[in-house]
Write a structure and sequence with these properties.
alpha+beta, Immunoglobulin-like, 3 domains, 7-stranded antiparallel beta sheet, 15 helices, about 20% strand
């Protein structure tokens, strides 16, 4: 395996490191030479290009991964062979983990903390790194070295920040490592403040700063009491009146939108329907039909006394156990879903990131009309809107002239009807809430002989 390539910043007085901690080499690179907490004979190396030699040597490229169906299979393909895993030096293992081909899957989750836990537990390289005594400190050094002002490297920084705040790494830091990390974070924040075109939101480094220093950097509030800087403006309302809190996020920069969009289309065999966006997520799209809000928890939509119910009939929405929702269109084997901050795509059910847990899905249906669609003149037939909801109002109607049929009985979700002449009839049923608002309508085509 090729050795990891670093470009080392050489200062004029190498033995006694300069107290100036930031040097500008060109318009793109900001180099952190050292932390005040590091011994005087030490420098932090700066990464000009994150080394992905290990993955390239194995032929695991975006083009190759796109040929592998399903996120679970992609994740399995990206495991490090166990026979060599233990022999990889920690410094090199950090580079392999930071250049992991599925590294940005954490951006596709509604909960990045969950995503990081999933990645640590399911990618053996990260799992091994988290269990090495020197793993956290080598990760800090690698994190300190990455300071390029483009989307890719800022996302790598964000990934490292999420790892370092995760209990698998953070709880293994000794006092010196915590001091080093605190110094590195403070310097990174200062460096980012110097950039006028920062592409990635600050929430990850802010969360890490709050963990290290005990207070929220942006608001100045105690880390214990600080709330999100994103404003919860209001709630969307389910069809039967339950409030579902949503969040309004500012949109990403166009560079970020373009990068996020191409990143996943290049790796997953999907059909792009809409560009990446931070303004809405899978739950908002699937349950609220919105592209303007972010919903963290869609639970009120499918709990008792609302419109959706758990069933394999008339499937409308599919909930993945990895906190993801998708829309199922009738007579279509594909789903449509928004992938976290990524794009809106049409995809096969299992061709999603592994962290969605595609093998553990629950189907939720909309009410549907049940009854025969081929009947005979002169007989009485019963139709019902399933399931029965005592809190709903029902309204039945037909598209034909009333002289051609006779309503025998109409009560709630049940209709009894006798057809007087043959032909094709369209039967409709509308469901209303307590305010009289129609929340769902179904129709059935009936052929009468």
């Amino acid at each position: 395996m090729k050795r990891i390539i670093f470009i080392i910043l050489v200062v004029s007085s190498f033995v006694a490191c300069s107290k100036d901690n930031v040097s500008f080499v060109d318009s793109e690179v900001i180099l952190s030479t050292k932390s005040d907490e590091i011994n005087e004979d030490c420098v932090i190396e700066t990464v000009e290009k994150l080394d992905d030699t290990y993955w390239k040597d194995r032929g695991i490229t975006p083009e190759y991964l796109k040929t592998i169906e399903g996120g679970l299979n992609k994740m399995q393909e990206c495991q490090i062979p166990e026979k060599i895993l233990k022999t990889i030096p920690t410094k090199e293992l950090v580079q392999i983990c930071l250049s992991y081909p599925l590294v940005f899957d954490f951006l596709l989750s509604n909960d990045e903390n969950y995503a990081i836990d999933f990645m640590i537990n399911n990618f053996n390289g990260l799992y091994e790194l988290s269990n090495r005594a020197d793993g956290p400190q080598e990760l800090i050094k690698a994190y300190a070295s990455i300071n390029r002002n483009n989307v890719y490297y800022q996302l790598i920084e964000g990934f490292a920040e999420n790892l370092l705040i995760n209990s698998n790494f953070y709880e293994k830091l000794d006092v010196e490592s915590v001091d080093l990390l605190r110094s590195v974070v403070n310097k990174k924040i200062s460096n980012r403040n110097l950039r006028r075109n920062t592409l990635i939101p600050q929430e990850r480094i802010n969360n890490l700063h709050a963990k290290l220093c005990g207070y929220d950097l942006l608001s100045g509030a105690s880390a214990v009491t600080a709330s999100s800087n994103d404003e919860i403006l209001s709630s969307v309302i389910t069809p039967f009146g339950k409030a579902v809190p949503f969040i309004i996020f500012p949109e990403m920069t166009q560079d970020s939108i373009n990068y996020y969009t191409s990143q996943y289309v290049n790796i997953y065999q999907v059909q792009l329907l809409d560009s990446a966006s931070h303004k809405y997520n899978c739950h908002a799209y699937a349950w609220a039909s919105s592209k303007n809000v972010w919903i963290n928890d869609p639970l009120p939509y499918y709990t008792n006394n609302d419109l959706y119910f758990r069933s394999n009939s008339n499937i409308a929405i599919v909930y993945y156990q990895g906190n993801h929702s998708a829309v199922k269109r009738k007579s279509d084997s594909h789903y449509i879903s928004k992938w976290g901050k990524g794009p809106l795509v049409r995809h096969l059910p299992a061709n999603v990131p592994a962290l969605y847990q595609p093998n553990n899905r629950v189907n939720y249906s909309l009410p549907f009309i049940q009854g025969s669609d081929a009947v005979y003149v002169g007989n009485t037939y019963t139709y019902t809107m399933e399931p029965y909801m005592g809190y709903a109002g029902y309204s039945w109607s037909l598209s034909e002239d009333e002289s051609r049929y006779e309503i025998i009985n109409s009560s709630g979700n049940t209709l009894q009807i006798k057809f007087k002449s043959g032909g094709v009839y369209m039967l409709y049923c509308s469901i209303s809430n307590a305010h009289g608002d129609v929340v769902h309508s179904e129709r059935m085509e009936i052929l009468v002989y």
